Amino acid sequence: MKQLFLIAAYFLCLSLHLSAQTEPSAGTWKTWFIDSPKEFKVPAPSDYRKEISEVLKLQKNIDSSTLQQIQYWNAGAPNYRWIPMVNKLWMSTPTSNGILMQMLIHVAIYDATVVAWDAKYKHNRPRPFKADESIQLYIPDPSSPSYPCEHSVAAGVVSTIIAHFYPDMADSLAGLSNQLMTSRIMAGAAFPSDTKAGFELGKMIAEQAIAKTLDFTPKTPWQGTVPDKPGQWKGQPMLPDAGQCKTVVLENASHFRPGPPPDFAAEMEELRNFKPTFRSVGNAFHFAYQTEDILSKKIFEYNIHLNPPRAARMYALEAIGMYDGFISCWDAKYTYWGIRPEQYDTTFKPVLFASPPFPGYPSGHAMLGAVNCELYSYFFPMDKAFFEKKAKDGAESRFHGGIHFRSDNEVALDMGKKVGALIVEKAKEDGADNSSISTIKTKVKIKKRSK
To answer: Which domain holds residue 202?
Structure first.
């Protein structure tokens, strides 16, 4: 009986979603790098009836290849398909600008989506498949007005910001963006003018975000020196100037800076006496090389990918958490130059073979894992225990791998919790928690074609 009730409840929720409009009040949410959605005037759309023939012409040429592109670009929220490219770019050549780029992309997509949603419900333009019964819909009903196109908004943001930091990629990004926009038209989900307006809006918001953060990263190479003191880390430092970057929510990089590291003698002894097990070794390697996108997975599980504004908000808050968390962690690392176990005891061989090229105190993995735990628990409170275990296992993996002392992890978990909590506190001011998810019905006016 309970199972039948749950199934009935599921289909009731599904039917409510399909009969509702998606986040009609999202256009009122607070933004990050623009003062208000109202400061960006999206021009009124032209008469969509003039574009029906263009959509039908494209749909006549749909084949297996174009269907594949439609499904590819429709997967997930508008951010989703761009995430692997963005992550690969900044992680392959880590720089302060790369960390900034990742944050800017997701925050600008959120800001631009809020502006887009303000325009959508102002103009209430019907989707092509609703405007003309001859037009087929090749994806699930987006349940929101058509103008401007939200996926094109993301394309405009991504192509503009990546091209700013990696100019050589401009042409390839333009090609991908055109492919995405064509796929939305072919899918029957957008008119050509919807995609154009969305792309231009994304580009405009991206340029604003870039302009507002020009002074976020140091403009001159690091001039410091590696300390030559016993008990401190030595080596060719990676990103030693990251702690000098400006933060978004934190007052500055030292907002939650911990006290200096302890004498690691007792903790070194603990590491020497630790006997690796199959589980501990597996845990060490899992978190050392994991590429799991937990947020996207949860967004899919909760069907938030059908709600672009709310998904964009989650990706933006995660990106701010990663950025502020990373900056504050690196501030502490290069303030104290905390030594790594294999340098403290040169006879010690870590399970992970070698330590990363930067000081150990506090642990970056533990820090960012704790930040995410706070944010994800706010997004998906029913899964809080899962996120807490992930953060704990991630921190412990660095001890299991032999590349961090226990204090590195414990201090980092505390820092990350504070950073994440502060971002959640700020997020609660944006108005999104006060709006219902996909439950307010709004009629889309469809003009009748003249005979």
So the answer is: 14-37+49-215
